[in-house]
Amino acid sequence: MTDAALIDELKTLVEPGKVLTDAADLETYGKDWTKHFAPAPSAIVFPRTVEQVQAIVRWANAHQVALVPSGGRTGLSAAAVAASGEVVVSFDYMNRILDFNPYDRTVVCQPGVVTEQLQNFAEEQGLYYPVDFASAGSSQIGGNIGTNAGGIKVIRYGMTRNWVAGLKVVTGKGDVLELNRDLIKNATGYDLRQLFIGAEGTLGFVVEATMRLERQPKNLTAMVLGTADFESIMPVLHAFQSKLDLTAFEFFSDKALAKVLARGDVPAPFESECPFYALLEFEATSEEIAENALALFEHCVEQGWVLDGVMSQSAQQLQNLWKLREYISETISHWTPYKNDISVTVSRVPAFLRDIDAIVEENYPDLEVVWFGHIGDGNLHLNILKPDDLDKDTFFARCARVNKWVFETVQKYNGSISAEHGVGMTKRDYLGYSRSEAEIAYMKAIKATFDPNGIMNPGKIFAL
């Protein structure tokens, strides 16, 4: 733990009242959406400027104090959890949009800018920020960059990495670096910007980010299709992708849908009950495209892949169909789910899912399992729900034992143990299933270069 004298010194580095130490604040800011680890930070500090961040990092180096970055705290890998007396650096007050360049279609953001804030700003300029997910109303750009967040539009627009034009960072040594300077073409050696994207704050802190924007999509239209089994989803994806430029292709199980419908916020898409559902989205910019979509639906029904379906006819119906997918994570959080965020190449999804499903059926016959995910990019979310009468530690320990077989299967298919949630603490012991020993050694060497004293988010990605 950090002693009182050090905390007093920390207070001199920021504005009055911007260091908190009371129990309620430590509890709130010391955790993310995971429930695996109890938060136990020493203090929470709120910088407002790059200079203050730099001063905090230099103070931490001088006194060997560990720092943990905190954004919207919506992470699902415990990357923003302070469980061992660290000082949490919250970017809540570095939340301004600093500049907009209409010619380059770029926006300079502070790290505490909320995703939805950037999306709304882009819309006001007649443009579009396409990285989107259920937590857009609370997640922050700095955190999105730290985990290379994905979401529901990856099939068309890619991950956060694709939209970062430039970064200003404070390294673990306390140096300020400006990376890439927003250039589209830059062939001058190593692109250090890319190292910080997905680094979970282990190399340093992002203090400014220049984000690219895109043209606004036109007349977005969604379809929800009910399928007889999971195997039918992939030929449906192939059929639609061969004729339409999809902006999204998601899937969820009947159990996931039942949980959302039970909330009473959104109606069922249609009367038929199906074991699996696909949600796809595209730009219906002409009657011909809409007619092609309906023809593809009829083809899928004729092939026996699809049992029923609906296509949005209004903006409100589009929103309601998306709620069926986007409300899943929040809805099942009541059951303290154990989450696996795994991915393989799209062509391997059917065989991969069969193998994973066999493991699930053998090891969780008495537990409720909810499947959903971004099937269009090969990302599956496996959620095991904790029964009310089972204590958390026992439940997590049981799931951790099963991880061995789940991740061995991921390794067999050359997949990833964490497609979009990051590694943090929940996946760090399994990193070897997706990265070779040589890769991990190089990654550790990179961290040692940027953070020689090991103060930046220690225990995340790699074990201490």
Automatic annotation (TrEMBL):
The keyword Oxidoreductase applies. GO terms for biological process: respiratory electron transport chain. It is an enzyme of class 1 (oxidoreductase). GO terms for molecular function: (R)-2-hydroxyglutarate dehydrogenase activity; FAD binding; metal ion binding. InterPro entries: FAD-bd_oxidored_4_C, FAD-bd_PCMH, FAD-bd_PCMH-like_sf, FAD-bd_PCMH_sub1, FAD-bd_PCMH_sub2, FAD-linked_Oxase-like_C, FAD-oxidored/transferase_4, Oxid_FAD_bind_N. Residues 37-216 form the FAD-binding PCMH-type domain. Its EC number is 1.1.99.39. It catalyses: (R)-2-hydroxyglutarate + A = 2-oxoglutarate + AH2. It holds the Pfam family FAD_binding_4. Keywords: FAD, Flavoprotein, Metal-binding, Oxidoreductase, Zinc. Belongs to the FAD-binding oxidoreductase/transferase type 4 family. This is D-2-hydroxyglutarate dehydrogenase. It comes from Stutzerimonas kirkiae.
